[in-house]
Design brief:
With 269 residues, this protein is mainly beta. It has two helices and 17 strands.
Length: 269
Amino acid sequence: MLSKKLKILAATVVAVIVLTPIAVSLFRSKVVLVGGQVVTLVTRAPAFVDDPDALGSWVSVGFTQTIEEFVPERTILTENPYVPGVEFRADGKTSGPWLWSKGTLWHPWDRTLATYTIQTIKGVPFLFVEWTSPELYGRPRFNVLKKGEFSTPHRTVAVTTEAPAFVDDPDMIGSWTSVDYVQTIEEFVPGKKAFSGDLFLKELQVKPDGRTSGPWRWSKGIVWRPGDQVRGKYTVKTMNNTQFLFMEWINGDVTNRGKAPWFYVMTKN
């Protein structure tokens, strides 16, 4: 009997050892982006640990490649920062999409976990937030903020907590591959790529029931992303006997800075 129990125990230990890496992989995976940047995707927010020094409103003052080279009086913004400011709230939430715990900021849409550090320089506390996003190529930079009130710009996109009522659109259904990224639909020229960089959104499968292979739900003329509850638009045009899908790309420039969305251009496979 003892031998049988030992065998069961040994089998259990082996199962735990074998399955643990599999379980961990469900929560973390690494993605290498253009420029060699490695981003670890995290599917869950860390357990909340309080940090009284972080509580309150912070306003962006600039960017720096490293914390050590930051000099407040030499930091000059040529335009509004990507994130104009953020408020850390006592329940682990923020004024933006992030959830925070001591030393970390977790982004539920991108599934990225960034670190933050607070340092007092010449009597002024500064918050250094590692800017890690699938849309940022190259090595990580830091968004630098200091204590102060910030104003939220006017949003140019609709925010809604519910998916739109589904209305079919046969032209939308199918498999699409990205070919360009343009500021306006009129800017696009078939066969001539306007965007010089790598296209972050490679492809999209649009399903007949209103779902997609990405985070979006769709209805005729509308794409809705439940994570940030923003609603964008799409249009399908035929140009040179080819169908093109133009989908508004709702990113931080739109939600945080009030800019008009650009368009991903795709062709049907």
